[in-house]
Design a protein that fits this description.
Layout: E1 29-31, E2 33-35, E3 37-41, E4 44-59, E5 65-70, E6 77-78, E7 83-87, H1 90-118, H2 124-149, E8 152-154, E9 159-161, E10 172-173, E11 180-195, E12 207-212, E13 219-231, E14 242-250, E15 261-267, E16 271-277, E17 282-284, E18 287-295, H3 296-305, H4 311-318, E19 325-331, E20 333-334, E21 341-346, E22 353-355, E23 368-370
Parallel strand pairs: 1-23
Antiparallel strand pairs: 2-22, 3-16, 4-11, 4-15, 5-7, 5-10, 6-9, 7-8, 9-11, 11-14, 12-13, 12-15, 13-14, 16-21, 17-18, 18-19, 20-21
Helix pairs in contact: 1-2, 3-4
């Protein structure tokens, strides 16, 4: 998020905000402040969802056989068509060699009788008989080669080999048996459940940011590629009052993986608004407040008129310079927190100065110092 908020934070030595002793009598507390200004906010919808690869397949033999070679390793990147396992194929190899030898012989005979036919030394019937035999032998070579090919379990896609520990040399495998998975994590997708109350905000093509739960977190960016035409269906894994939304994105860093849970954020808009730093906000009875600094000369008339301020405190304030900063507690209405900033709905105006340190030690109407 591009911030335009200009924080005018002081650099004086501070009392610790949590657990710090309260200032002694007569001591004025030093605080940091920030000026209220506009920032760029991107309202979003958040969900926890699992990543899936757009291309994941199970490696399965197409024929029965005993494993005689393991030609790849766990986690190895392979290309489509690359052999992963070799099954026993002595008979199939011998049959193919014999078929190739026979095909060569039949081809020579067909060529010989073609020559004799052209020179009138052979009949068309004899020539056709040998040509037909050569074609049959050629087709048998192709069939035997395909049969031998089934004895090599190949990767159907470009990707990374999964766990191969379930199959070892000498193991007997059957056609259709799941050996391992081949995963291509270059493009991923995630399926998010969006509350029905916010379903109308989601559109195809909106940006979706994903962040892993690892430390440090890994980030990715994609877009909404599918919005379900119906809400959750009874009997499925989705909530009955949620909309299923799919996002697809390139795995540019290669660090995100299938099956990983991530925090997904669908960016549903963009707006400029006055921003309040999270450090300035404190809660009382579920109402957010901030402390605003104002010159004593501006606050003193109201303080004198207040029945809740002791006369002793009023007299102390009257002795201070008119420019002394005074903190005034103000209630505020805020939007959702984004990058340590709250969008301001009401309660402050542009240019107001709020306290962003030691708020737990403050009370309404006390003087403070701001470092310069």
């Amino acid at each position: 998020m591009r911030r335009t908020l200009a924080l005018t934070l002081t650099t004086a030595t501070l009392l610790a905000a949590c657990g710090a002793p309260k200032p002694e009598a007569g001591q004025i507390l030093t605080v940091k402040t920030a000026r209220i200004a506009e920032a760029n906010f991107q309202p979003s919808i958040e969900a926890i969802s699992m990543l899936e690869s757009t291309t994941t397949v199970s490696l399965r033999p197409e024929t029965d056989g005993r494993v005689v070679k393991v030609l790849a390793k766990d986690g190895e990147r392979v290309e489509a068509g690359q052999p992963i396992l070799e099954l026993d194929n002595v008979q199939q190899s011998a049959a193919l060699n014999a078929a190739r030898a026979q095909a060569r012989t039949d081809k020579l005979n067909a060529e010989r009788y073609e020559f004799l036919f052209k020179n009138g030394a052979s009949s068309a019937k004899q020539r056709d008989q040998y040509v037909t035999q050569a074609i049959s032998s050629r087709d048998k070579v192709l069939a035997d080669a395909a049969t031998l090919g089934y004895k090599f379990v190949r990767s159907p896609i470009d990707g990374v080999v999964g766990d191969l520990d379930s199959v070892k040399l000498g193991d007997y495998v059957k056609a259709g048996q799941a050996i391992t998975g081949i995963v291509d994590n270059s493009t991923l997708w995630t399926l998010m459940q969006i509350p029905a109350t916010r379903a109308g905000e989601v559109k195809i093509g909106q940006t979706v940011n994903v962040t892993s739960q690892t430390n440090p977190p890994v980030k990715g960016e994609g877009e909404v590629s599918f919005i379900s035409p119906y809400f959750g269906v009874s009997g499925s894994n989705s909530s009955p009052n949620a909309l299923m939304v799919k996002a697809t994105f390139p795995n540019l860093t290669g660090q995100l993986k299938t099956g990983q849970f991530v925090k997904s954020q669908i960016v549903v808009g963009e707006q400029q608004a006055l921003a309040v730093p999270v450090q300035a906000v404190f809660m009382q009875a579920q109402q957010p407040f901030v402390y605003v600094t104002v010159p004593l000369s501006q606050a003193l008339p109201k303080i004198k008129a207040s029945a809740s301020v002791p006369d002793k405190q009023k007299k102390k304030l009257e002795k201070l310079p008119p420019t002394t900063p005074i903190v005034v507690q103000k209630p505020v209405q805020l939007g959702e927190l984004q990058n340590n900033l709250y969008p301001l709905k009401s309660g402050l105006k542009k240019g107001d100065t709020v306290v962003v340190s030691n708020t737990a030690l403050l009370s309404n109407g006390i003087p403070v110092k701001t470092a310069h």
